[in-house]
Amino acid sequence: MNSSASFAAFVAFVRSHRAEMAALLGQHIVLVAAATAIAVAIGVPLGIFAAKRPRLAAPAMAIAGVVQTIPSLAMFGFLLPVPLVGGVGARAALVVLILYGLLPIVRTTIAGLRGIDPAIREAGVALGMTPRQLLRQVELPLALPSIVAGIRVAAVVGVGSATIAAAIGAGGLGEYIYRGLSMVDTTVILAGAVPAAILALVVDGTLLWIERQLSARRRSRSRRVALAAAAVIAAVILLSSGASARRGGRDALVVGSKNFTEQLVLGELVAQAIEGQGVRVDRRLNLGGTLICDRALMTGDIDVYVEYTGTALTAVFHQPIANDPSAVFNTVRELYARSGRTLLPPLGFNNTFAILVRGADARSRSLRSIDDAARESPRWRAGFGYEFVERPDGYRGLAKAYGLRFPDPPRVMDLTLSYRALAAGQVDLIAGDATAGLIKGLDLVQLEDTRHYFPPYDAAAVARAEILLRRPDVRSALERLSGRISAADMRAMNYAADVEHRDIAAIARDFLASR
Amino acid sequence: MPDPAIEFRSVSFARPERPRVLDHFSLTVETGDVVALVGRSGAGKSTLLKLINRLLEPDEGAILVDGRDTREWPPIELRRRVGYVLQEVGLFPHMSIADNVAVVPQLERWPRERIATRVDELLDLVGLPAQQFATRWPDELSGGQRQRVGVARALAVDPPLMLMDEPFGALDPMTRAELHREFRRIQERVRKTVIIVTHDMGEAFALADRVGVLDAGRLAAFDTPAKVAASSDGVVRRLLDALPQVPRA
After folding, report:
1. Are A454 and A446 in contact, with CB atoms under 8 Å apart?
2. B15-52 tens-digit pLDDT
3. ipTM of the prediction
4. Which of A88, A349, A411, A490 could make an S-S bridge to A168, C-beta 3.0–4.6 Å?
5. Please, which residues 31-60 of chain B have a Cβ atom closer than 8 Å to chain A?
6. How far is residue A312's CA from residue A296's CA, in Å, rounded to a whole number?
7. Considering only CA atoms, which of B36, B85, B12, B63 is closest in space to residue B214?
8. Min distance B150 CA to chain A CA atoms (Å)
């Protein structure tokens, strides 16, 4: 693809997604602004407190520094099981962003206060200022440019970190980045990354301007203008966040999904099916993995998402692998019921792991089953998603069952990137999804699991039992999807999303209309 | 007989881990006097001033301001009765000249009109016409002008007592001489009790009614300029000889 073509695609995408993009940008701004505002409200008093107590300042800064080095995705992981602040959604993202924002704000508050000429402070005391008056009239105004510099760093870092918050369903421009990654679509990634970068630059520039106005020549006029501008910006953001919070509403049903194409399509299907009953739906799509979805369903952050029976059995409930589809379904249904959740009847397709090779290889070496691949494995490189490497029904058992012997340990990579890596010849064998549209799009071949190593992965919606009891209309909407989506349907919808780059909401709408 | 403005009663003071700065130091300053305390750098001159407005407290002995121990004064009330001028001036860089002068009246919650009138009056008094200087900023002024603003700020609520810590130390000789004249002119009008500390014997003789000589934490001499200059006391003589600018008789 040449660069002008991809730029045209980008422009076309922006045009057709204007409203959604504006909403995501709005979420992003609100998230960062709220996190920064709270970080200021906590960090500045903390900095003032620490600046006067050197013995406290050093360890406080050390702790804040350590917090800062925790990668944000890991931080979201730590917070998942924590009550009140954890879980998924904007609240947990807010907590993480606040933690990141604190360090620069505390540090610059301390630096700003310590940097004040001692003669000026002494003059204030000698003139009969109380410690409070000294702080308000002398110390804080003089430290303000430094504090604003810290706020600027916090806000710009926040714009970046907030893209990762999409992994836990907080929304924002990260949605596009994750969606784009899962669809292997650069245009969609750019639709998230470019506005985020522009936002970071605008935030940086605006706060730098305010900082300059405050520090340069202390003209009370421009100072007042800068403070007024800052106040107006803050007020607008807070008002708009209040408005968007109200829009969310109490009785909306929350639909979740994991962060790959099929899950996004299924999330949309479930959401639109429920909306068809006149019920308002909040979408928390693109959650970062099975455990996050499961935890969110437990805590009530989401009400329903689509899970796969085999995944639930092994990854959620830590049960040994079983191979009989109906036995697995019944076991999982029973286990869910014990924790107040209901597994609805399967949707109709089995998304088992697919061991994939290039079509060209399959044809030239007549590869049909995984046994054939085992023969070739000493000359091959394998690439797997993180989940496949870790899961009990993943790589290790597979290697044992079929006697796979790769010369090097498998390369661990993003699941959706592994299709491209296989097609591009960077690896020779991957474990994909049986329903992946890219199998068709990239001319890949699925090898047969002749030894029945993989358990069944029948897709089925799982919902909080309480919701289904209270909302029979939701239950009937979900049941109407049962048995209606075949593997061919699913692969076609995935193909439409991944290869044809069609809008996922539209794909779901067309599918529901065709039934 | 009224209480003296300031009385040091056998005051000792030491910084942690350092030799004593004041050693059973006693001094009485009468109301309305201008007293100059002279000594080498490190002789404890600034410490002495900070003990008066309770930026520091004595290890032993007591300091009385208007007959009352500084430790019994509410510190804020005490400091607002005592004008304080530093060598570094310590003007607030984020406030205009007028706002700097208005700081203490603001703290005292004077009505706005009264503050404005007072600021104009003070700026005129220190030779910085309000029209020209009120809206300017500290970093736009020369060292001598800043020092005048510092004096105006210290005088704002008309405190009975003024403490001046090397107020003219950082200025060139011409400006210093000019400010000395200004000081005498202002003092004639406002009649404060003033304590100036300086290492410049010439300045002490030029400004003070009484001159004290600090040595080794004690007062080696305390008398009128003429008598101090004529003193035959060994310590004072040696100090006088060591200090620059001893005036010729």
Report:
1. no
2. 877 778 888 899 999 998 999 998 877 778 888 999 99
3. 0.86
4. A88
5. 53, 55
6. 14
7. B36
8. 10
